[in-house]
Amino acid sequence: MRGPDAANSLIDINSATVSELKKHPGIGAALAANIVASGPYGSKAQQVTKNILDPGMYESLSRQLIAKQSNEIAANSASEKPPNQ
């Protein structure tokens, strides 16, 4: 989806409520509550690293999600480094 409607369909996982998250296909009540309780997120991909979404579910939902960051969230995310593999 492109244009103005595309921006309106994105869900900011750092500010959305459980009710707002539940309105989107693929996000039920339990998942919505878990997303809200586990935030804030430095990026939407942190839902996988925090074990909120499995990689397959993340792939199907990722185009609907964004993770806007306040300055505090951005600073905390920069200090979180993933382990070397």
Description:
The chain contains six helices and two strands; from the N terminus they run αβααααβα. By secondary structure, the chain is mainly alpha-helical. The protein has a single domain (4-69), classed as Photosystem II 12 kDa extrinsic protein (DNA polymerase, domain 1). The chain starts with a helix and ends in a 6-residue tail after the last helix.
What's the structural blueprint in terms of helices and strands?
Elements: H1 4-9, E1 11-12, H2 18-22, H3 29-38, H4 46-49, H5 55-61, E2 65-66, H6 71-79
Parallel strand pairs: 1-2
Summarize the structure.
With 85 residues, the chain is mostly helical.
Which structural traits does this protein have?
48% helix, globular, DNA polymerase, domain 1, two-stranded parallel sheet, 85 residues, mainly alpha, disordered N terminus
